[in-house]
Structure formats: C-alpha cells, structure tokens
Amino acid sequence: MSAAATALPAAEERGAPLAPLSRLRLLTRNKLALTGAVAAAILVLIAVFAPLIAPYDPARPDFTAALREPGWAHWLGTDDLGRDQLSRVVYGVRASLQIGLLAVALAFAAGVPLGLIAGYYGRFADSVVSRLTDTLLAFPFLVLAVGLATILGPSLLNATIAVGVSQIPAVIRITRAETLRLKHLDYVAAAVANGGGDGTVLFRHILPGALSALTVQATVGIPTAIIGEALLSFLGLGVQPPSPSLGVMLSSAQAYIAAAPWMAVFPGLAIIAATLAFNLLGDGLRDILDPQGDSR
Amino acid sequence: MTTSTAPPALSVRDLSVVFRTPTRVVHAVDGLSFDIAAGEVLAVVGESGCGKSVTSTAVLGLLPPTASVGGSIRLGGRELVGADESELRDVRGRELAMIFQEPMTSLNPVLTIGRQVGEVLRRHQGIGRREARERAVDLLDLVGIPAPAQRARDYPHQLSGGMRQRVMIAIAIACDPAVLIADEPTTALDVTVQAGILEVLRSLRERLGTAIVLITHDLGVVADTADRVLVMYAGRGVEQAPVDELFGAPRHPYTRGLLGAVPVPGRGRAAGGRRRLQEIPGLVPSLTEQPDRCTFQPRCSYADERCGEQRPALRALRAPRERDERSAGYERYGPERHEAACWYPVPVHPEPTEPEPTEEEAAS
Amino acid sequence: MSYPIRRLGESLITLFLVSVVVFTGVRALPGDTATALAGEEPTPEAIAQIRESYGLDDNIVVQYLRYVRHAATGDLGVSSRTGLPVLDSVLEALPVTLELSALALLLAVVVGVGAGVVAAVRRGRPEEWLVNAVALLGLSVPAFWLGIVLVLAFAIAVPVFAASGFVPFGVDPMENLRHMVLPVIVLGSGLAAVVMRQTRAAMLGSLSADYVRTARAKGLSRRQVIMGHALRNSLVTVVTVLGLQLGHLISGAVVTEQIFVLPGFGKLTIDAVFSRDYAMVQGVVLFTSTAYILVNLLVDLAYSVIDPRIRLGGAQ
C-alpha cells in the first residue's frame, strides 16, 4: 500500500504531519500569509514605539491649525480641534492592538478551560457548557456591549470586556471540538490507560495538540476585536474622547465628512490595514496548520 | 462468449495518461491496449496504483484537467479521446456507464433514490419527471431491491451498502449502456452481499448483452465472473488471457507472482480459486519515469540484461498445449488469444531444474 | 427523543438563562434600582411609584417570577424617557430593522453564494483570486467606515442615494428604496463576504465528492452537476452559517441605523443607553435575545428539512 501510494499524484500534497521547520518554510512560501505576518509585525512595532514615532502629542488641541489638509507639517492633516492625525492614528493603532490582544486573552482565559472540560468530561459538563455558550451567543456582541455600558458606564475597559466575552463561545467551541478529536487518538488513550491524571492528560497531551487550531482562532480573533473596539468607540460606548482611538476618530469625522474627508479616510485605512494583516496571517496559518480547509 | 469476428464494443489502443503537477510528472497509464466485445466480462487486475482506476476514469473522460490522455479509446465506432465535452456527456450514462467502488459516498445524500435514478433517464431519454419516476422504480426492481416504490422515496443513508450498490447499478444500466465499467464494485461490501451484486452483473450480461469491464483485486471474483483477464503492472498491460488459461498457465512472471502459486495444468480454476493477490517482494516502481525496459525487471527473478534495456511489447504467445495447431487464429483479435509482455514468458510446464514448491512455500 | 423536541428543550433552557441574566442585570445597576429605573432627575413620587409597580420590596424570586409573567404577556415596562410602554416603541421600530435586515440578508445570500460558487468552480483561475480578494477586503473593512465612504461617494459627491432618514415603503416605495440602498450595502457586504467564504469551502468539498463524480458519469451537464448536486449539498453549510451570523446581523443593524439615522431598533437601543433609559435597554435586550434564540431554533429546524439525514434521525 505504501509503495502503491506513490502512484497517486495527490499523495504528496496530502502528506504526513509536517515538522515545525517545514511549517516555517510553508509560511514563507505562502506569500499572502508572509505579507500578513510582515504587516502585523510592522503594526506591532508602530504600537510599541508610538511615543517615538508620533510627531505631536495626540491629545493636545491646536485651534490655530484646525481641519488642515494633509501636508508637510501634518502628513495626514489635522482634525476639527487641530490635533495631528498621524499622531492620533499611531496611538489609535496602539490602542486597537492593546484592546485586541487583551480581549482575545480574556476570551481564551475563559473559553479554553470551559472547552476542555466540555470536551474531556462530556455528558453533564458538556450540556452545562453548551447551555452557557448558547446563552452567551443569545446576546449579540453589540447587545452585550450595550448592556455592559448601561450597567458599568461606557469605558475602554468595558468595551474590552464586551469584545472579549463575545469571543468566548467561538473559543469554547473550537477547544471542545479539538478535545473531542484528540481524546480518541491512540497516544491520548494510552496516556489515560497508563494512569495519567486528568490534569496531566489535559495539559500535557490535549492542550498541545489543540494549539494549532487555537493559534488560528487567536489570529482571526484579533481583527474581530479591533473592529469591535472601533465600532464601540464609534458609537461612544468604548474609548472616551480625548483618548485617541480609531473608532473615536471616525465618529468625530462623521460631522466633517464633506469638509474634511481625510479625517475619515486615514483612521479607516489604519483599521483596514490592521484587520487585513491579521486576517491574511490567520488564513495563511489555517492553510498551513489545518490543510483540510476552513469548512467549519 | 462472442465470436472472434464481432467488432469490439470498446477498443482501447495505446492509451497513455500523464499527470503533470508543478513538481513532477506521473505516467499513470503507459501504452495500454485492450478490447472487449458485447456480452463479455473483462477483468482488469493488478495491485493498487497500477493504473486500473485511472484507466476507467480516462475511458469516461472524467480525469481532472491536470491529466493528459493519449492514444485511442473507441466506443462502437466513436473516438472518445479528444472528443469535446458535450459529446462525451451524451455518451456518459447512455452508452458508457460506471459503477464506483464506494457505494456509501457515491450517492448524493440529500436527494432521493428515485430522483437519482430518474435523473439519468431524464437526461438521455427526454422523458418527463413522472415517467422517469416510474421507470426508476422498474429499474430498482430489476436490480433486486425489495419494495422498490417505497425505496425510491428513501434517501441513501436509509439503505445498506449492498442496496446502495444496487442503486448505483440501476443508475448505470438505466439507458442500456453498451459498456459498463465496474470499479471494485464489491470491495466495500460483505462477502454475502458481494455474491448478490455479482449475480446482478452476470444477469445483466445475459439479458442485455452488456460488455462489462470489471476492475478488481479479488481473484475469486475474477474466477467467478470474468471471461478474460487483463493484468496490469505499473501502468502497463503485462498479460491478457482467457480466465481459465490465465489461472492455469500464467506466462508473465508478475502474473505468476500475483497468483502466488506454480500453475497446475488442467486445474486452472482450482488453482486460482478464492484467493487474494499475493505479496511480491520489492517495490512498485515510481511512475515518474517512463523507462525503456520491462518495468517488472527490478523485481523479477528471471530477468537478464535484455529486460533492463528493451521494453517488451504485449504480444500474442504461441498457444499453449493442445491448441498449438490452431495458433494462427490467435494472432487476430479474439477472446481466445493469450498475450504477455515479457521477453522470457514462463514456460507452461515448469523446467525440470526448477524444484516443485512445497505446500508451505506455495502458501507463503 | 426526537430532534425537534430536544432542540426545543434546549432553546427553552437558554431562554430561561437569558431572562435570568437580563433580570439580574438591572438589579446590578449601581445605586438604588428604583432610582435608576425612574430615569434622569426623578421625583420622589416617581421613585415610589416605580418601587410599587416593580414590587422591588418583594423577595427576589417573587420579583423574577413577576418579571417573567409580565414579559410573557408583552409588558416590558415603561420608558423613563418617553413614558410610553417599551413594547410599543419596540414594535414601532421593528419594521425598519426587519426591512433593513431582510434586504441585507438577501444581498448577502445572492452575492455570497454566487461568488462562492464561482470561486470554487473556477479554482486556480483569476476569478477565484478576485473573489477571494474582495471577500477578504469585505471582512477587513469595518461596516461603519464603509458607510461613511459610501455616503461621501453616493450621497454627497454624486447624490443619487439618500444619506440619512427613512420613508416607509407603504408611503413611497421608490423613496423607501432610495433611502435603503446604502444601509443595505453597508450591512450586507460583510455578511456577503462570510457567506462567500463558507460557500466556497463547502463547494470545494462537494465538488470533489464521490456523488459529484457519479453525477458526471451520468452525463449531466456542468450546470446540473454544480447546481443540482454540489450546491444542493453546500446549502446545508450555508444555512448553518447564516444562523451563526444572526448575531452579527443584529450588531451590524444597530451600527448601520446609527450611521444612516434610521429610526429602527438599533437607534432605539443606543438612544436608550445614552439617556439612561434602563427599562428600555432591558426590554430591548430581552426582546433581541429572545428573537435570536427563536430564529436560531427555526434555522436549525430548517436545516433538518434541507438535510434528510437529520430530519429522519439517521446520522448524527
């Protein structure tokens, strides 16, 4: 059989599990994914070194320079209060990435343990977690954010919580599916048979196996979170002015849409760049780590 | 069996199939020729990956665009290689039908059985929905499905594997095709179910005179069902003979290895009985090259320099045994002809120098 | 237990949990619940009346049961801002949101399924590349930014469509559509991208399935094979995805209405948040979540109609 398999042209592509090194090679061969990775790295650098990059104080108004078109002094123009758009976009990217990462971390901190429990113990635990997931899903992202903003008041922290909580069901679902899949694999069954405790099996054997799928989920979770934050800030439920945020910038741009379109264009392009970078990276990672495709 | 003068229902000449991917080239089928007459059952045997299924897919013109097909495939008087897609579509399902290996997945899970059988009738016979439905029920009855009118309303998952394969046969024979290709039709089924499916195929041949190309691993199925056998190795045809003769006196070393026993003259059928293909030491050669030598040479214990330098053609052998005096007739097309692609065909009677194997060796 | 009944049971449990969360949410408001519910700058009489009508001095379980009984009969409380029953405001805003959502869904399905089929059938060709690129862009462009840009292009620069406001369809169909075009594109584009990607993935799967090979071996035309066999199977996936996207549709509708000043459900919600109209927020959240659960239930039941394996309790 093994010898005969060479006759099938597709056999090579289906292939055996890849070694980490060849995965890295695949990443470089997948041009889109590489583009995404480079773009994401640049964005992270911009966020980390924002104070060095921004030419002006992003929050300091300068009424003598309000609504300036893009030019040499202000590359991306100024807003209605004369604040430098470039500086605000740079700090906005920083805020977006912070919130994105925090929200995804929150979703994973809650979702991964619940998914593991549901998948590993099954039965009662599974039904409880499933109902919990359904209940969370029944509050669409914005409805959840509205509720939180109503109870706790609109703020950056509450926006992050809303964005994070709305991603919990997806994390639970993926962790659960992976756990179910891995639980029945021989090496996990062997670990159980050898008297490995639940903790050992879960954290030594199942979690590492689920890492690929979770990595992809994290990568696609970040752009969703970035858009979510921008959305909430745009509606006034997230970051509060005068703190720089891409969503806040777009919100104030709406009033000047005809007079100063650059106020809307550049923050929007920044959001697109950030989400596109992580979406490309996520798509590429999915192709590399899970060749069966994105059927689910 | 047909007379040797009848024109073949399907005639394949020098067929080659090459898959080209950016990284390599695979010669899946290389210079294959065979004929099959109406009412005949030709078994195609060989290890997996030898090109059997690629051949059948090529005959239907269903290969992916990465494949390039050369040579000639003539159905009746019509050339299929190079024919345009709409012409092929008129042939498929009407004159040329196929049964696939996987009855579990070959039917569409979201359509009823009746719809899937009726569909092929509506396509080729231009009849309405209602008439197609009635004819579909008749066909299900014909292939031995109990309560066909009810089954027609069922979905594939409600039927057993054997029943699904019968549905596949009903689809295949709906338009009385001249040629039916059955690719491992019983491999996925239980032994008891297998017998029923083979019985359906045999009765088809009797009643409708369908030419059947039976692709299989199972020598028992071959012995039970086939008139003639074509043995394939690494994309090439290596031996072709009437079934009794192939089992009784295999002339190609590969066939001998495949049958796993030294033939006993006069007990051909028994020697080939219910037995799976035997393992032969060595590896099937990579199909990325197209060597000008016998592809079996690396694994052959009879090979010499000539085998490593020149490619043997599939050619008619002098008829063995008592048929010698009629050998002129074997050179023409005909079901009696015995061909092998070997420079040194295995003699019919073993050389005295070759020791007779013991029972254990024969079984191993 | 048959599938529909089990599914119904699950929905009821979820509904119960949702009602508990919404009920608790209002009690978790900072400060005194009655004061909060009475709206901004309440009079002592108003607070006392609220305390009385909500029965806030009763046992919490009694309060919950009363809340559920009221909600079940359509009594979602009274808006502190307008003094009108919450349900009336909701029902008034609903047609706008439903029209917007239905048209956006239609756009998403037509464009998404169409493009997904093209991308799968023309695999490895320029068409697939183009469709994939547009879909990725659709996923990465935030709807509200697209809204701003579209307003700039088609309502300000070239004023063909309306930038804001709503005209009921019954009053003037043409004007209604002129006001809906941009919002529908804004809401539908992201959804179309998701539908497209799922359709493409599902189609790639079914196009390489054995039953498609069977269909081709029958001599069916390309169109019959793609539409009758491959797409028919892929639709099961697409319907599931649409169900999962319902939350996004609701969130998207809120934003879209905010951008285009449509007097729908979303605008009602956001206005309520900023005027601290807690009864309204509570009513809207409960209404939305209940609708979400019901629609998902319907989608799952529809799913079982499309896929006989589930309907007849076979596989799974």
Automatic annotation (TrEMBL), chain B:
It comes from Streptomyces endocoffeicus. Residues 353-364 have a biased composition (Acidic residues). GO terms for molecular function: ATP binding. InterPro entries: AAA+_ATPase, ABC_Ni/Peptide_Import, ABC_transporter-like_ATP-bd, ABC_transporter-like_CS, Oligopep_ABC_C, P-loop_NTPase. It comes from the Bacteria. SMART domains: AAA (SM00382). Keywords: ATP-binding, Cell membrane, Membrane, Nucleotide-binding, Transport. This is ABC transporter ATP-binding protein. It is a peripheral membrane protein. Belongs to the ABC transporter superfamily. Residues 12-259 form the ABC transporter domain. Residues 344-364 are annotated as: Disordered.
From TrEMBL, chain C:
Its main location: membrane. Pfam families: BPD_transp_1, BPD_transp_1_N. Residues 94-303 form the ABC transmembrane type-1 domain. It is found in: Cell membrane. The keyword Transcription does not apply. The keyword NADP does not apply. Signal peptide: none annotated. SUPFAM superfamilies: MetI-like (SSF161098). It is a multi-pass membrane protein. Keywords: Cell membrane, Membrane, Transmembrane, Transmembrane helix, Transport. PROSITE patterns: ABC_TM1. Gene3D superfamilies: MetI-like. The chain crosses the membrane at residues 100-121, 133-157, 177-196, 235-260, 280-303. Belongs to the binding-protein-dependent transport system permease family. PANTHER family: DIPEPTIDE TRANSPORT SYSTEM PERMEASE PROTEIN DPPB-RELATED. This is ABC transporter permease. It comes from Streptomyces endocoffeicus. The lineage of its organism: Bacteria, Bacillati, Actinomycetota, Actinomycetes, Kitasatosporales.
